[in-house]
Amino acid sequence: MSEKTGYGTDFIQRALTRLHSAGLLTENATGEELLRVFEMAARTLGVAGFNARRASRHLVDRELFTWWNEEQEWRTTRGKKRGTRRNTSTGALALPISVPARVRYGRFPTRSNGRADYPRARAIVAEINSTGRSAA
């Protein structure tokens, strides 16, 4: 087996022992049975939901990156406008489909020295996104 996998026999034996003790070595299991086994093993090992949490953190990081870049672009734009012009007529339906991050969250939070305050920004994004999900 080590020729096929490229791993040493000791490593393969340890891996098989761990898989067997976690209950992951099952024969003739259907897809749903395997999913239940995997979920039970993940709960037993304390890693259930790890990928979902990682994906959530990744999405927040991407949103922070976008927000900070938009903030930098806004700060370096000459002749800033002080407000947004509202040209909506009566009866027009305004849908917030794709608004810039700076409009969604406001100014990017900064510390007293002018540097970005990422912990505060992360809290703002997490709060607004969790509120939006619960309202939907």
Textual characterization of the structure:
It is a single chain. The chain is mainly α. The chain has helices spanning 2-5, 9-21, 31-45, 50-76, 101-105, 118-135. The termini are far apart. The mean pLDDT is 79.
How many strands, which pairing sense, and closed or not: the largest β-sheet?
none
- Low-pLDDT parts are none
Q: Roughly what percent helix?
A: 55-70%
DSSP E strands, number: 0
Core attributes:
136 residues; mainly alpha
Lay out the secondary structure.
Layout (H helix, E strand, L loop, with lengths): L1 H4 L3 H13 L9 H15 L4 H27 L24 H5 L12 H18 L1
Helix pairs in contact: 4-6
In short:
With 136 residues, the chain is an all-alpha fold.
